[in-house]
C-alpha cells in the first residue's frame, strides 16, 4: 500500500517509529499537510493506484472519499456509544450515561464526565464541574453568527457519573485480532509501557468475539474497582500510538490490506 501520513499528527516517539518501520520494509509513504474540514492535501499525492491507507486526523475523511482510497480509514463514526452499549452492555465503563444533545443536557451531580457519543472528536471528553459545563453549554448554544465550529447545540453527547480508574490500556485490533497493546495511563498520569497483563487481553478478546464496530479499530479498556471496563473505541488511523509495537502493526496492516 501507499501510506499517507499527516504532518505532525503523531507525537514522538510514535511518529519516528512509524516512519522507521515504513523505511525498514521499503513501504511507499508520503507526508502531507491537511486542510481542515475540506481534506485537501498539501502537496497533493500523485498515485497510480487506490490502495492507500491514511494516518492522521479526521480531516482526512474527505480526501479518502474523494479519491476512493482503500482501505483509506477504518471509520467507526457510525458505531456510536449507544450502539456499543447495546452490544457490550455493562462491560462499558459509562454504561449508565445519560445521552442527550448539548442544548438539552443537565447535570445530575456536581461533576460529570462528558464526551460526544460517536468517534467524532467534536471535542475531547473530560470531567466538567456543573458550573464549568453550564458556561461551556452557553458558549455553544449562544454562539455568534458565523462562528466556525463543528460543534452545534444539537450534537449528541453522553454525561456519566465519575468512576475511579486505576489504569488505562489501548489495544490495536486488525481483522478482529489483537496485534499490539500499550498501557497509556497509570494512576491518572501518562505512562507508556508496552507490556500489559494478560487479563486485559483476555477481556478484549471476549468482547471482540461478542461484537466489533469494525474489523480493524482500537479499543481502550481500564482497570476499576468494579473490574475491567471498556472506555471507548476509536478509528485506528486517527489514534495515538503510545508504546505499541509499531513494526507489528505496520506488517499486520500490510498483510491484511495490500492489494
What can be said about this structure in brief?
This protein is of the alpha+beta class and 259 residues long.
Task: Write a structural description.
With about 260 residues, the chain is of the alpha+beta class. It has 3 domains: about 1-65, no CATH class; about 95-160; about 165-250, 2-Layer Sandwich (D-amino Acid Aminotransferase, Chain A, domain 1), CATH 3.30.470. It is about 25% helix and about 30% strand. The strands form 3 sheets. Strands 11-10-9-12-13 form a 5-stranded antiparallel sheet. The model has no long low-confidence stretch (mean pLDDT about 95).
Return the string of H and E elements.
Answer: EHEEEHHEEEHEEEEHEEH
- Main β-sheet, in a few words? 5 strands, antiparallel
Q: How many domain regions?
A: 3
- At the first level of CATH, the class of the largest domain is Alpha Beta
C-alpha Rg (nearest Å): 19 Å
Strand order in the largest sheet: 11-10-9-12-13
Q: What's the overall geometry?
A: globular
Q: Count of helical segments? A: 6
Strand content: 25-35%
Class based on secondary structure composition and strand pairing: alpha+beta
Average pLDDT taken over every residue = 94
Q: How many beta-strand elements?
A: 13
The CATH superfamily of the largest domain turns out to be: ATP-grasp fold, B domain
- What is the name of the CATH architecture of the largest domain? 2-Layer Sandwich
Helix amount: 10-25%
Ends apart, CA distance between termini: 7 Å
Architecture blueprint of SSEs:
Elements: E1 2-6, H1 14-24, E2 29-34, E3 41-42, E4 52-55, H2 61-67, H3 81-88, E5 98-101, E6 111-116, E7 126-129, H4 130-141, E8 156-160, E9 165-174, E10 177-186, E11 189-193, H5 198-210, E12 217-224, E13 227-234, H6 246-257
Amino acid at each position: 500500500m501507499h501510506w499517507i501520513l499527516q504532518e505532525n499528527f503523531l507525537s514522538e516517539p510514535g511518529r519516528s517509529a512509524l516512519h522507521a518501520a515504513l523505511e525498514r520494509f521499503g513501504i511507499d509513504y508520503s507526508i502531507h499537510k491537511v486542510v481542515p474540514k475540506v481534506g485537501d492535501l498539501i502537496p497533493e499525492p500523485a498515485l497510480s493506484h487506490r490502495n492507500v491507507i491514511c494516518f492522521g486526523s479526521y480531516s482526512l475523511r474527505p480526501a479518502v472519499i474523494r479519491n476512493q482510497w482503500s482501505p483509506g480509514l477504518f471509520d467507526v463514526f457510525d458505531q456510536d456509544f449507544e450502539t456499543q452499549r447495546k452490544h457490550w452492555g455493562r462491560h462499558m465503563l459509562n454504561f449508565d450515561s445519560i445521552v442527550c444533545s448539548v442544548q438539552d443536557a443537565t447535570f445530575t451531580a456536581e461533576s460529570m464526565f462528558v464526551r460526544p457519543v460517536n468517534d467524532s472528536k467534536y471535542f475531547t471528553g473530560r470531567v466538567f464541574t456543573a458550573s464549568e459545563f453550564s458556561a461551556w453549554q452557553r458558549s455553544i448554544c449562544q454562539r455568534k453568527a458565523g462562528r466556525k465550529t463543528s460543534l452545534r447545540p444539537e450534537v449528541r453527547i453522553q454525561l456519566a457519573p465519575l468512576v475511579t480508574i486505576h489504569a488505562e490500556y489501548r489495544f490495536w485490533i486488525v481483522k478482529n485480532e489483537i496485534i499490539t497493546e500499550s498501557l497509556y495511563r497509570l494512576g491518572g498520569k501518562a505512562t507508556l509501557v508496552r507490556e500489559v497483563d494478560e487479563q486485559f487481553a483476555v477481556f478484549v478478546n471476549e468482547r471482540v468475539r461478542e461484537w466489533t464496530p469494525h474489523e480493524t479499530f482500537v479499543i481502550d479498556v481500564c482497570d476499576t474497582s468494579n473490574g475491567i471496563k471498556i472506555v471507548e473505541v476509536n478509528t485506528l488511523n486517527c489514534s495515538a500510538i503510545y508504546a505499541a509495537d509499531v513494526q507489528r502493526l505496520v506488517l499486520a496492516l500490510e498483510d491484511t490490506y495490500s492489494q
